[in-house]
Amino acid sequence: MKSIDLVPDDYSSRCMARALELAARGLGGAEPNPLVGCVISDGQSIVGEGWHAVFGGAHAEVAALRSCVSSPAGCTMYVTLEPCNHHGKTPPCVDAIRNASIKRVVVAMTDPHPKVAGTGIRSLRDAGIEVQVGICEAQARRLNAPYLHRLSTGCCWVIGKWAMSLDGKIATTTGESRWISNEQSRQIVHELRGRVDAIVVGRRTVERDDPLLTARPAGPRTATRVVLSSQGTIPPDSQLRRTAREIPVLVVASTAMSSEQQRQLDAWGCQTMVVEGADHSQRWRPMLRLFAERGWTNVLVEGGAGVLGDCLDAGVLNEWHLFLAPKLIGGAHAPSPFAGNGRASLSQTVIAPPHEIRRLGDDVYMWGPCAPTDPRE
Prior knowledge:
Blueprint: E1 4-5, H1 11-23, E2 37-42, E3 45-51, H2 60-67, E4 76-79, H3 93-99, E5 104-107, H4 119-126, E6 130-133, H5 137-143, H6 145-153, E7 157-165, H7 183-193, E8 198-202, H8 203-209, E9 224-228, H9 239-242, E10 249-253, H10 259-268, E11 271-274, H11 280-293, E12 298-303, H12 305-314, E13 319-325, E14 356-360, E15 363-369
Parallel strand pairs: 4-5, 5-6, 7-12, 7-13, 8-9, 8-12, 9-10, 10-11
Antiparallel strand pairs: 1-3, 2-3, 2-4, 13-15, 14-15
């Protein structure tokens, strides 16, 4: 790479902002590891940069050191997450930093992973390297919110997605929903699909829409298609059943699934998972823990209204993506995005401020985080 000159005003923040931009390039590739970016600076020029691109591959610090156009000795390293100090799939990053004679390391945030948890910073300081922590920490935490959530709760990060009309309908009274949103909006959906570990729908969506639930074109990650079906049933002529041996399909059932039905799913090449719970909303948290045990970080919920409503009732929705189309559907019985029990009062509503709003042709696309709460707690 060529060296990059930056404006000196608030130089450290600019370098860290660049490192965060690089870190985001690992979306869909780095998970279940965190997203990490790194910039190496000599004076007022960036001489090396890198990011953690793929799980099992070089960490951001090593990638940045390898890209340097001049010696990194005496330079400052800006990294979005505390460097690791343990052997995993790759050697410790603190060793590479020390061997490169880096003089100063600026870290956006510490890594709460039990194998790191401050040991990387201590090791650097013990080696005589100056360490500063906290620049752009809020942005770093937001970028790695799914990773931090999985560490703190043992559950996957849940992303809800829906397209709706101006009057809040996701289908007509007859169930027709293709297509409420436009082609540009649907392309964003495919991009989302290409970076998550799983795409979740309910049995009724499979029966009504017969979706394939793949990213087109393919993204960095191939998601497992997950069907929630208490009895473990899916239509035998569905696209999911016909492609189960090519792209994974997981049927999540309750204890009501019969052994005969499980044998049928096995014969079709579908995976199965049995989750206990009195109703759908009570099965969400244990299901997400089982997903996390598989190494999954991000789960995209595409509906329909019953599944999204169960997410809301269970208090597990972490992020939302809305595609708003300039159409009026009407009808008292036309479905809205969230069924389920809902909240009894406005004081119990989930706070979900938009992080981004933009036009996609005539559609409006917005997304943001939500603060999930369990109404039963």
